[in-house]
Write a structure and sequence with these properties.
With 101 residues, the chain is α+β, with helices and mostly antiparallel strands. It has a single domain, classed as Orthogonal Bundle (Arc Repressor Mutant, subunit A). The protein is built from 5 helices and 3 strands, in the order H-H-E-H-H-E-E-H. The protein has a 3-stranded antiparallel beta sheet.
Length: 101
């Protein structure tokens, strides 16, 4: 049985990936590496405030890291954190499926 904090963590992870724009952001960061936020907004053709909102959701889930460097915000994909959460999600579902039988 998962603790309440683990459940909240997995919920934030799944919600963060539940939007097409956020999936596009993750894909961009995973394939092209670290990007400046303004470049992500330009490439995805979305406004900076909308990008900021999506990045905040991804950061809360822990799969995107953001660092301010002067006036720029640099964003990167945290592969290790993503793999950990994906693995934990799969194990949770498999354990639940075996208990339900």
């Amino acid at each position: 049985m998962l603790s309440e904090s683990s459940l909240r963590e997995l919920r934030a992870y799944h919600r963060s990936l539940g939007d097409v724009t956020r999936l596009r952001i993750v894909q961009l960061l995973a394939t092209d590496g670290e990007q400046v936020a303004s470049e992500i907004a330009r490439r995805l053709r979305i406004s900076p405030p909308l990008l900021s909102w999506h990045l905040h959701r991804l950061k809360r889930s822990g799969i995107v890291r953001m660092v301010r460097v002067g006036r720029e915000v640099r964003c990167s994909f945290d592969r290790a954190r993503y793999a950990e959460l994906a693995d934990r999600s799969a194990r949770t579902l498999m354990n639940h499926a075996s208990v339900a039988k």
